[in-house]
Inverse folding.
């Protein structure tokens, strides 16, 4: 419901969210689904009308699956079919291809291209159906004031009106890269050493044009560029500014069409957006300031080469929401909120660092076509050997820091299953938003009454998923080598159960994190 009154009043909520972009609206939906009363603030009355983020991965689709949005979003997205580095002649240096219809370990495509305005309107429409979400759109937020037990913030309608005061135990700052809240709280940003100017051009194809079906990094020493197919008739190019080029000259229409000329004729396309951005690589020094939490671009910024900018912000949401809810329900102490930065900062830092490595590698490959000095290390290239980060500490069993079995702190896969006469469903549907003990055989007789009481208290599910009920193979390996896996609400593996990690010991470790 919308709040349009101009009388100065105070409203109390369970949480205040400043910024109603992808992270803010997803956090609002996730907390409201858990019964929280949510106030969401944004100075714009509608979504930003032009595309910005264009890709999210299978892990993020699982978050939308939990919110009941995955099917509608699947209809709005197109699968990423691969990516490659190419040289100045257009020949592949290295890359990968994905057959259409392929799903990964998450049981969703590993890459999903989307149109951000359409995507955000879908998330907002879902939130509008929840009576416990109150939106204050078209409101400017002042500096929040944090007390011992609550946070308060005054907001004023952008078009004029009286001030409204909001209070809540917690405030989530999803207010973007410029984050007024981060600046007001004097939280520093740590640069990771990549600040480059790029022209970003989004177009609508007006005719059938033979363009690559996959993303490309064009390592041309004369002009480094990126091509992204996106969805429908939408395509994106990004052109690195060369030394001496100015923002003004790059935004000249004739200049833009000249840059597009190797791919398109002028009458084949309509330019939807052209903007010069400085790609940044940075993470915040502090993600939690008492009862105020940074998330999304307010906490970290990355060059776009991996398509992980928005994904990283939505991981912030998935990580923080269940911890806030455990605290509110009296299942954990305040210290659980300190694990938010402990877990998310290294993970986001690793992805930002990887994106920076991609950017530097593009430069090196472009230079090598002139100098002949090819880089020795190509790990960061598309299809290279650099792996995806995991959690190393926080709400994990002991031994996670030792990388036990390449399982602890990694994401748990999701399979199709057919259980309880429900037909074929994805496994997450049976434990979404909760802890789960997942095994290939029924372990209920091996769990003590004391541990069952604890698991019941925290709302954990005990799921037997034998091979006979699996309708896809994602779980075969992990359950083939382990008796069980203890999975967190955000789908990261708390621990495994096997000869080296007995069930009773692992459940004791899980209980040690909670009241």
């Amino acid at each position: 419901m919308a709040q349009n009154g101009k009388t100065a009043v105070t409203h109390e909520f369970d949480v205040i969210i400043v910024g109603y972009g992808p992270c803010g609206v997803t956090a609002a939906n996730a907390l409201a689904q858990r019964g929280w009363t949510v106030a969401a603030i944004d100075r714009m009355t509608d979504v930003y009308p032009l595309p910005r983020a264009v890709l999210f991965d299978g892990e993020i689709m699982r978050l939308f699956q939990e919110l009941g949005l995955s099917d509608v979003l699947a209809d709005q997205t197109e699968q990423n079919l691969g990516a490659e580095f190419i040289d100045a002649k257009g020949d592949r240096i290295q890359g990968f291809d994905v057959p259409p219809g392929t799903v990964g370990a998450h049981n969703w495509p590993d890459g999903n291209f989307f149109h951000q305005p359409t995507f955000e309107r879908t998330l907002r429409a879902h939130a509008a159906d929840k009576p416990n979400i109150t939106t204050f759109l078209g409101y400017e937020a002042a500096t929040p004031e944090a007390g011992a037990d609550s946070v308060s913030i005054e907001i004023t309608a952008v078009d004029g009106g009286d001030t409204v005061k909001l209070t809540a135990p917690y405030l989530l700052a999803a207010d973007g890269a410029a984050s007024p809240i981060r600046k007001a709280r004097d939280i520093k940003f740590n640069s990771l050493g990549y600040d480059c100017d790029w022209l970003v051009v989004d177009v609508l194809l007006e005719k059938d044009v033979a363009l690559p079906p996959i993303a490309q990094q064009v390592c041309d020493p004369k002009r480094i560029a990126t091509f992204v197919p996106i969805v429908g008739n939408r395509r994106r190019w990004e052109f690195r500014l060369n030394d001496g080029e100015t923002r003004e000259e790059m935004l000249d229409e004739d200049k833009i069409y000249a840059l597009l000329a190797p791919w398109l004729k002028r009458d084949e396309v309509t330019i939807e957006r052209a903007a010069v951005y400085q790609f940044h690589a940075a993470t915040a020094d502090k993600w939690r300031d008492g009862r105020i939490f940074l998330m999304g671009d307010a906490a970290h910024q990355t060059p776009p080469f991996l398509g992980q900018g928005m994904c990283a912000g939505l991981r912030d949401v998935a990580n923080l929401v269940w911890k806030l809810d455990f605290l509110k329900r009296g299942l954990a102490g305040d210290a659980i909120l300190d694990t938010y930065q402990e877990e998310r900062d290294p993970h986001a830092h690793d992805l930002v660092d990887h994106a920076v490595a991609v950017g530097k590698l593009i430069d090196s490959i472009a230079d090598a076509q002139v100098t002949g000095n090819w880089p020795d290390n190509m790990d960061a290239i598309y299809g290279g050997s650099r792996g995806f980060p995991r959690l190393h500490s926080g709400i994990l069993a002991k031994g996670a820091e030792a990388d036990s079995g390449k399982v602890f702190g990694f994401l748990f896969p999701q399979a199709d299953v057919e259980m309880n006469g429900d037909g074929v469903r994805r496994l997450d549907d049976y434990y979404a938003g909760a802890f789960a003990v997942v095994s290939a055989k029924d372990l209920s007789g091996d769990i003590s009454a004391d541990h069952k009481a604890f698991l019941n208290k925290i709302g954990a599910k005990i799921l037997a998923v034998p091979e006979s009920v699996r309708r896809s193979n994602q779980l075969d390996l992990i359950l083939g080598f382990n008796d069980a896996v203890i999975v967190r609400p955000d789908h990261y593996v708390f621990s495994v159960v096997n000869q080296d990690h007995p069930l009773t010991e692992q459940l004791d470790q899980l209980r040690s994190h909670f009241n």
User: Anything to note?
Assistant: Confidence is low (pLDDT under 50) at residues 1-7.
